[in-house]
Amino acid sequence: MPNARHGDAGAGATKPVVGDFVGYASTYVGAALISGAVVHYPLDPPRFMVIAVAGAVLFACATAFTEFVINRQRATARAVLTMVPASLALSFGIGSLSGGIQHFKDVPVRAAVLIPVGLALAFIAYVMRYHAQRWRTVVRPAGLALLATAALAFVALHQVAAGMPAVPSGDHHGQVPHSDGVAEAPPASSAPQPSVRQSRPSVSQSPTRAGHHDDGHSHG
């Protein structure tokens, strides 16, 4: 037993700390990129699509690096085909859940969808990623209770979002500059119109009046 413990300690000591940190941090950075891209996608679809894809690729690569390089698992074709889709689904689930929570006040209707869908997706993907042999956990009482919680959250959050203003104050994600631009546009476009309308009648009336005076003098 002492030898076994010493061997475990030695195995832990040989594990590269820097490499383990890189894989660990990259998974969180990838999930954070997906989180921001999922929430802000309507503001600039091409830009945030690139960010979402980059985050998903980073998350999947970091997971593969940690499993096959740091933990030295066997990289079989079956393991890769199981790990990559589940990791991508897990990253999008976590990103949707965290992004919806962070920006619920900014985009309540969108966040009301992202939070419960992200929770359900993350749970199912987690089971398939780390406990694939126990996939029946999803349809057992504990798993069904979690999915039911996500469904109830979907209904409750939509009710909360319905009572919130469509354009919340203090939004720092592009809506305030847009609203300012719209607010400034009507005065700028409406200001010249009265002056043009007032100037045109004065110009058009002056010849007619002059014509009447000329006619009056000619008949007189």
Automatic annotation (TrEMBL):
<feature type="transmembrane region" description="Helical">
    <location>
        <begin position="107"/>
        <end position="126"/>
    </location>
</feature>
<feature type="region of interest" description="Disordered">
    <location>
        <begin position="168"/>
        <end position="220"/>
    </location>
</feature>
<feature type="transmembrane region" description="Helical">
    <location>
        <begin position="138"/>
        <end position="157"/>
    </location>
</feature>
<feature type="compositionally biased region" description="Low complexity">
    <location>
        <begin position="185"/>
        <end position="207"/>
    </location>
</feature>
<feature type="compositionally biased region" description="Basic and acidic residues">
    <location>
        <begin position="211"/>
        <end position="220"/>
    </location>
</feature>
<feature type="transmembrane region" description="Helical">
    <location>
        <begin position="79"/>
        <end position="101"/>
    </location>
</feature>
<feature type="transmembrane region" description="Helical">
    <location>
        <begin position="21"/>
        <end position="42"/>
    </location>
</feature>
<keyword id="KW-0472">Membrane</keyword>
<protein>
    <submittedName>
        <fullName>Uncharacterized protein</fullName>
    </submittedName>
</protein>
<keyword id="KW-1133">Transmembrane helix</keyword>
<keyword id="KW-0812">Transmembrane</keyword>
<feature type="transmembrane region" description="Helical">
    <location>
        <begin position="48"/>
        <end position="70"/>
    </location>
</feature>
